[in-house]
Design a protein that fits this description.
Layout (H helix, E strand, L loop, with lengths): L3 E9 L11 H16 L3 E4 L18 E7 L2 H10 L2 H11 L7 E7 L6 H14 L32
Antiparallel strand pairs: 1-3, 1-4, 2-3
Helix pairs in contact: 1-3
C-alpha cells in the first residue's frame, strides 16, 4: 500500500520588487516563517533557492513568486497556515501581493517523492480549468488520498485568507 503526502504550491505577484521598501516587512519575516514551517508537526519538505527561501527561484513568468512544500497531511498544513504566526502574513498579503483569482493548489504525491515546479504549475492550471478534483484541490474542497472513497471536505479556511 502506498503512503501519501500532500504537496502544495502557491504563487504570488508582488506589488513591487522583492528588495523594495514596500516588501521590506514581508521579506523581514521570511526566515522566521520558514523556520516555523520547518519545525511544524507534519512538515516534510519545502522549496528553497540559494537565499534560503524560494523568492529567487524563477518561473516562466518572472513577475511570479512560487512557494512549494510537502506535508504528511492536509491537517498538518492547515494547522501551520491558519493556526500559527503564518496567519499574520496571510492577513497582510494584500499589502504585498496583487489579488489573483487562483493562487494555491494541493495534490497528493507518493511519500518520499519531491514535486517539481512544473508539476505544481500544471496542477494549478488544472484547478483553474476544471475546478477542484482529486488531482488538484483546495482547503475549501479537499479530496482524500488516491483510492479513497471519502467525499471531499471543506476544511473551512479563514475567510479573509481565501
Amino acid at each position: 500500500m502506498t503512503s501519501w503526502h500532500l504537496a502544495q504550491l502557491n504563487i504570488a505577484r508582488p506589488v513591487a520588487a522583492i528588495d523594495s521598501p514596500q516588501l521590506a516587512e514581508f521579506v523581514a519575516q521570511l526566515d522566521a516563517i520558514n523556520a516555523l514551517a520547518d519545525a511544524s508537526p507534519g512538515f516534510v519538505w519545502r522549496l528553497v533557492g540559494s537565499g534560503g527561501n524560494a523568492t529567487d527561484i524563477q518561473v516562466a513568468d518572472p513577475t511570479i513568486l512560487v512557494n512549494m512544500s510537502v506535508w504528511t497531511s492536509p491537517e498538518a498544513l492547515f494547522e501551520y497556515v491558519y493556526r500559527t504566526a503564518h496567519v499574520g502574513v496571510m492577513a497582510r498579503r494584500r499589502e504585498w501581493f496583487e489579488r489573483m483569482a487562483l493562487s494555491q493548489v494541493l495534490w497528493w504525491i507518493p511519500a518520499g517523492t519531491v514535486p517539481t515546479i512544473d508539476e505544481g504549475l500544471a496542477r494549478l492550471a488544472r484547478l483553474e480549468e476544471h475546478g477542484p478534483t482529486a488531482e488538484a484541490f483546495t482547503f475549501k474542497r479537499q479530496f482524500g488520498v488516491p483510492g479513497s472513497t471519502k467525499p471531499p471536505t471543506d476544511m473551512r479556511p479563514e475567510p479573509y485568507c481565501v
